[in-house]
Structures are given as C-alpha cells and as structure tokens.
Amino acid sequence: MRRSLLLAFLSTSFFMHAQYGTNCEVRQFKLNAFNPGIEYEMALGVNSTLDIRVAYQAALEPASSQPLEDFDFFPAITVQNRYYHNLNSRERRRRSIYGNSGNYFAPSAAVFSPGSRVVEGRLVDGIHGYGGLVYGIQRSYDSGFSFSIDAGAGYYVGPFKGTIQPVVNLSIGWIISEKRWCVGL
To answer: Which keywords annotate this record (predicted)?
Structure first.
C-alpha cells in the first residue's frame, strides 16, 4: 500500500512539473490560407501541445475506389497532440523555437463533414474521419508567418469500408495572437 501511495505521489509530482516548462508557446491562434480556417495550439507540457484546426481542408475521398487519386475540399476539424522532440537541440544550436518551430510526432484525428455527394455514380452521405499517427515540422517567423506539414497513416471510417490510407496535413498562414513563454530569445 505504501509503495502504491509513493508511486502515485511521484507520478503526480512528475505530471505537475510537466505542466511548467520553457519550450512551448502557452497558446497561439493562427489563420490558415492554404486550408482556409483557424488553428489554435496550446501547451500541455514542456514539449507537447494540443493543436485544434477548423478549416475547409483538402482531403482524399475515401468513398472512392481509388481514394489516392480523388481529392476534394471538405469542412473539417483536426486535432493533434504534438510532441516536439527537437526544441532543446534547436535552442542549443541557436535556432529559433518561436511559435513552436520544431519537429514533432502526433496522434492525429479528423472529422470531415462533406454533406451529400455523388462518388462514382452512387450517393454518399454522412461524415467521415480518420485516426492515425503523423510526423511533421512546423516553422514560425517573427513576422508571424507560419507553416507546418505532417504526414503519416490513418484508419479512415465513415459510410464506406474502413481502410488505412495516407494522411498529409499542410498549414500555411499567420500567427494572429500568441502568449509567449520564455522562448525565441
């Protein structure tokens, strides 16, 4: 029992310590130009963030028999829990980490709401989405210009047979508001 209490106390103190760090922005809002919409990224710990994007996003059509060749723009909500693995090394090399400029791994999930559409002669209705893992880079500059790109694989579900397909997200835009946290010195 004492070991369990000690383990619970140590893990609680570890997670409380992880909430305060020196690398990630506390929060930032971005306007996206490539996939028109807004993005919000908030710090969860020293090197991790929660990124939420609401946009009109380019995506493959998973209801197609050849989804990799059939793209369209759909309203979407994308959520990622990003872990930036190289912020410390970038800072040591005197590279900017402003705006969470770094490389990351992230579980990623998206929900698309395209409405009714005709795909290969049949009516497809309802939302679809994916859950998967991506690797990406994000760079932000003092002017506010920011871009990120990530790629990986995800399991797509919806009004069609579920399948694993590639996932690629591209965000090009501007940081319109940020709360800095000892970064970009």
So the answer is: Signal
